[in-house]
Amino acid sequence: MDAPASARIFTSMSQTNKNIIYAGIDVAKRTLALDGPGGRCLLANELGGHRGVVKLLGKSIEPVHVIVEASGGYEQGLVRRCMRRNCASVW
Known about the structure:
Layout (H helix, E strand, L loop, with lengths): L4 H12 L4 E7 L3 E6 L2 E6 L2 H12 L5 E5 L7 H10 L3 E2 L1
Parallel strand pairs: 1-4, 4-5
Antiparallel strand pairs: 1-2, 2-3
């Protein structure tokens, strides 16, 4: 007996889906606490730290989705940098 249609569709779709890696960034006025595929690290919330996040996330073979909490605007520079570099999806 064949599997129900819904099971066949799910199986078929799952074979083409890529794995998704999630990275969380706790944004503060002066720091970025990254917890992602390369482990945990603390970076400055300034241009150099934003570049560091992009560099670290860019090392992942799989797509990375970045989860950033809105933090009174302190996240905006990082989000813009990630979006410009197409390194991650930012939520």
